[in-house]
Backbone:
């Protein structure tokens, strides 16, 4: 997916305009085609993940008379509103999203619904949308994305005070929030990137926002995923030795297995 990115607002606005036109003329084939053309031209389709980071499973809805439909969303905010507290969502780039969603047909899924309760499309028709899918990332914009403002505020407070209670609050905020990670290009597609320090410790890297992530990677093309902080903390002591939050930033924070156990038990 490259950098942490969003669908360009002008494309989302056009999608909403065409959705309103379709709602005003139900059954109009031209209006329906125009809507799905706008949907296909988005750079990213968002889904709520009801599975695990290793085996993502888009959430869906049972539609009487049709069957199970997978929910697809045009913005992070719309997906996040459906995901709810403690849940995660994924931003899947186009046109890869089309093939991935189509693969769920073998599990009995009938189609997708865009921005529920919006229009729906049979899975078998997803391949036709490829003609409109963006050829480049002009369909997205690199607006700053803050995954967890609560965690960011807590780390800033800890750096200012260096107080034990402030440290513990950061750990608790991480456990209850989401963070951004860069996927290891040599991994299995779900493994977060890590580095090894001079003590041979494996450091798991995570970020509170896209600006800090972008500064660390200095504009390199990376694949970014939003992950639950609680899941990342569980990896510390299991697959990694230390969690480093916002590395090289003035508010950088480190959590070790012992410190995590002391706070969370």
Residues:
């Amino acid at each position: 997916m490259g950098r942490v990115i969003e669908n360009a607002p002008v494309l989302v606005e056009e999608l909403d305009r065409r959705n309103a036109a379709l709602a005003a003329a139900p059954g109009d084939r031209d209006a329906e085609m125009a809507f799905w053309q706008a949907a296909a031209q988005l750079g990213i389709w968002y889904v709520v993940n009801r599975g695990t980071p290793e085996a993502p499973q888009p959430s869906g809805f049972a539609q009487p008379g049709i069957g199970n439909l997978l929910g697809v969303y045009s913005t992070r905010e719309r997906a996040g509103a459906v995901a709810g507290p403690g849940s995660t969502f994924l931003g899947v780039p186009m046109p890869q999203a089309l093939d991935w969603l189509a693969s769920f047909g073998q599990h009995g899924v009938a189609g997708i619904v865009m921005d529920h309760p919006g229009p729906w499309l049979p899975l078998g028709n997803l391949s036709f949308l490829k003609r409109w899918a963006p050829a480049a990332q002009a369909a997205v914009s690199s607006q700053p994305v803050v995954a967890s403002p609560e965690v960011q505020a807590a780390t800033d407070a800890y750096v200012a005070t260096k107080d034990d209670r402030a440290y513990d609050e950061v750990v608790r905020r991480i456990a209850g929030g989401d963070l951004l990670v860069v996927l290891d290009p040599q991994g299995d597609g779900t493994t977060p990137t890590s580095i090894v320090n001079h003590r041979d410790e494996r450091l798991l890297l995570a970020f509170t926002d896209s600006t800090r992530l972008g500064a660390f990677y200095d504009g390199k093309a990376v694949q970014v995923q939003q992950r639950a902080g609680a899941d990342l903390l569980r990896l510390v002591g299991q697959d990694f030795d230390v969690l480093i939050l916002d590395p090289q930033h003035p508010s950088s924070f480190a959590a070790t297995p012992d410190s995590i156990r002391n706070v969370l038990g």
